[in-house]
Amino acid sequence: AQSVTQLDSQVPVFEEAPVELRCNYSSSVSVYLFWYVQYPNQGLQLLLKYLSGSTLVKGINGFEAEFNKSQTSFHLRKPSVHISDTAEYFCAVSDRDTDKLIFGTGTRLQVFP
Amino acid sequence: SQTIHQWPATLVQPVGSPLSLECTVEGTSNPNLYWYRQAAGRGLQLLFYSVGIGQISSEVPQNLSASRPQDRQFILSSKKLLLSDSGFYLCAWRGDTIPNSPLHFGNGTRLTVT
Question: A103 vs B36: CB contact, 8 Å cut-off?
Answer without folding.
Answer: yes
